[in-house]
Amino acid sequence: MPSKFSSGPEKRTSPLVWFAAIICTILTLAVIIAGIVTFIGYLVIHPRVPFVSVVGASLDRLLIDYAGILEIQVTVVIRAHNGNENAHASFSESSYFLSLDGKNLAQLVAGPFEVSKNNSVDFNYVAVSKPIPLDPEEAEDVDLSIKNDRITFDLKGGTKARWRVGPLGSVRFSCNLNCQLHFHALNGTYIPSRCTSKAK
Ligand SMILES: *[C@@H]1O[C@H](CO)[C@@H](O)[C@H](O)[C@H]1NC(C)=O
Ligand SMILES: *[C@@H]1O[C@H](CO)[C@@H](O)[C@H](O)[C@H]1NC(C)=O
Questions:
Q1: In angstroms, what is the span from residue 142 Cα to ligand 2's centroid?
Q2: Distance between CA atoms of 168 and 147, rounded to whole angstroms?
Q3: Which atom belonging to ligand 2 lies closest to the Cα atom of 188?
Q4: 118 in ligand 1 pocket by Cβ < 6 Å?
Q5: Contact 62, 134 (CB under 8 A)
Q6: CB–CB of 83/49 below 8 Å?
Q7: Looking at ligand 2, which residue's alpha carbon is closest to its atom 8?
Q8: CB 151 within 8 A of CB 141
C-alpha cells in the first residue's frame, strides 16, 4: 500500500521543509541582529579606546664634536588616554625608539601604569643617547640641520593597553606610534605636529 506522502498532491510542502525554512529565517535574523549589535558597540566603544599621543617634547642636548661623535638628550611627553567611563586602563610594555636618519639613538621605556576612568596620564620619557659615532656623511647632515635650525627625529614604538571587563575578562588594544619629531636645532624647541596612535 503506497504511503500517504508519496501519493499525496505535489503541492503539499513537507513539514520538514517548513522547519528548515523557519530555522534559516531565524539564523538569518540572528546574523543581522548580531551585525547591528556589533556595529553599535563599535560606534559606542571606538571613540573611547585607549590611545597614546605625543603632547610635548624638547631637545635638551645636541652635541657633535669634530670627530663626528653625536650625543643627544631628548624629552618626549607621551600622554596615555583612556576615554572609557567605566573601566580603568592598564598600559604595559611601553617602548619607543628614537632614531635619526635610520640610526637608533635611544630607547624610551616605561614600566606598567594605570589610567583611571575617563582620564589621561602624561609620561616624560627622557632619552639620553650614548656617544654615537657618525660617518662623515651623517655628521654633515647633522651639521646641515644645525645650520638650518631644524632637526627631525623618528619616533617608533608602542604600548599595550588593556581594559578589565568583569572579574575575569579583558579587552586588549595595541597603540602604535610612528611619527617624526621636529625641533629647532639651536634652542631645542619642539615644533608640534600630529603624533598619535588614534585612528582618524
Ligand atoms: C569625561 O571627561 C570629559 C572631558 O575630560 C568630560 O567632559 C566628561 O564629562 C567626563 N565624563 C564623565 C562621566 O566623567
Ligand atoms: C626657538 O627658536 C625659534 C626659531 O628661531 C623661535 O621661533 C622660538 O620661539 C624659539 N623658542 C624659544 C623658547 O626661545
A1: 19
A2: 57
A3: 1
A4: yes
A5: no
A6: yes
A7: 189
A8: no
What cell was used for 87?
A: 573601566
Cell of 107: 630607547
Residue holding cell 639620553? 128
Centroid of ligand 1 to alpha carbon of 117 (angstroms): 9
- All three cell numbers of 42: 563599535
Q: Best of 86, 118, 121 to mutate for ligand 1, by most ligand atoms within 8 A of CB?
A: 118
Q: Which three cell numbers stand for residue 62?
A: 645636541
The model's pLDDT over 160-182, given as tens digits with 9 standing for 90+, comes to 999 887 777 788 889 999 999 99
- Write out pLDDT tens, residues 22-81: 999 999 999 999 988 887 777 766 668 899 999 999 999 998 888 889 999 999 999 999
- Using a 6 Å cutoff on CB, does residue 85 contact ligand 1? yes
How would DSSP label each residue in the chain?
---HHHHS-TTPPPHHHHHHHHHHHHHHHHHHHHHHHHHHHHHHHGGGS-EEEEEEEEEEEEEE-TT-EEEEEEEEEEEEEE--SS--EEEEEEEEEEEETTEEEEEEEE--EEE-TTEEEEEEEEEEPPPEE--HHHHHHHHHHHHTT-EEEEEEEEEEEEEEETTTEEEEEEEEEEEEEEE-TTT-BEE----BS---
Look up the pTM and report it. 0.76
